[in-house]
Amino acid sequence: MTHRIPRLIKPLAGVALSVLLIITACHKPSTQENNLSIVQAGAVSECRVIKYRRGEACIPLEPKRIVALDVPAVLDPLLALGIKPVGTVVDSFGNGQDWSGKRYFPALLPELVEGIEIVGVEATPSVEKILKLKPDLILMADQSELAFEQLSKVAPTVLTDVFRNRIPIKENFRKIAEIAGKKKEAEEILNQYEQRISNVKEQLSDRLISSEISVLGYHQNHLSIPGNWASHLQVFQDIGLKVKPALLEPDEYVGISFEVISDFDADIMFFIDFNTSSKAFYQNPLIQSLDAVKNGHAYIVNGSIWDFYGPIGINLFLDDLEEYLVEGGSRGVKR
């Protein structure tokens, strides 16, 4: 997959009037639990009806001015499909004014997000900024749901319950692609992913495939274990890597104390680090006593890369993973 995505956005003539008609005629809020589905509307409406948990909306057959209200689960899939939104939120570490750089956009791939307007922070988008962009479609993940009622009056708004319903990465990508009218392109990208997974498997020795792997998070002097649907665990499963059973039990991220860290010791350990200077943390005697650390198989990994939920993020993650499992990473826990 190429990292340089062509710019495809062009102004949509008469968008304000079209949006008003679409909202008036087609948006029907509902509290019914519905899976997201798409129905082709009549030719007169020139839109597709999207049904989802909060109701339904008519979206343009070929939306041109999309606002993405989640970085990994919406923005990443759109950019991977060759669609550059007119607006996006920044990650929850940002300040709402510019890119925080905490995730791979723009820290590693600034060219992909150049020119995209910032409309706030994940979970708290600015309705005023979105309105100025005159979008013809707003795509949002459920963590921004508090703004749904207001945003659904600005433009056709589709809510995906990717986090609420623990929707797997590949399924979420297919949903976004279907909404954007890019189903064929999505399958091509997923085929490329499967090929890359096969290549990674071929590079790993039998020892690594059979080794038990554990992953812990570290942020602001606290340890945590990821939920069993965490993105990196999904990719581990596709590769066929053996994951520490204790990591597969919780549905949510769970904080743990240093006193139980030995319960998560494994042949290989990854510490997902969201801090910029935490070397002293890893000198804790309880961490130094872990077998993975003693054997030189404990690695400090970049939280901005390991926090992903789309094809672009997956490729960056696999680049990072290969550095440790195939090449032997240099960012190990020092003894």
Which helices and strands appear, and what pairs or packs with what?
Elements: H1 15-26, E1 37-40, E2 47-52, E3 55-60, E4 66-69, H2 71-80, E5 87-90, H3 104-107, H4 110-113, E6 117-121, E7 124-125, H5 127-132, E8 137-141, H6 148-151, E9 157-160, H7 169-179, H8 183-203, H9 206-210, E10 212-219, E11 222-225, H10 231-239, E12 242-243, E13 254-256, E14 268-273, H11 285-288, H12 291-294, E15 298-302, H13 303-306, H14 311-327
Can you put this structure into words, describing what you see?
By secondary structure, the protein is an alpha/beta fold. The chain folds into two domains: 15-187, Nitrogenase molybdenum iron protein domain (Rossmann fold), CATH 3.40.50; 204-327, 3-Layer(aba) Sandwich (Rossmann fold). It has helices at residues 15-26, 71-80, 104-107, 110-113, 127-132, 148-151, 169-179, 183-203, 206-210, 231-239, 285-288, 291-294, 303-306, 311-327, and strands spanning 37-40, 47-52, 55-60, 66-69, 87-90, 117-121, 124-125, 137-141, 157-160, 212-219, 222-225, 242-243, 254-256, 268-273, 298-302. The longest helix is centred in the middle third of the chain and has 21 residues, at 183-203. The model is unreliable at 1-34 and 37-44 (pLDDT under 50).
Quick rundown:
The chain is α/β, with parallel strands linked by helices and 335 residues long. The chain has 14 helices and 15 strands. The strands form three sheets. A six-stranded mixed β-sheet has the order 7-6-5-4-8-9. Strands 10, 11, 12, 13, 14 and 15 form a six-stranded mixed β-sheet that branches.
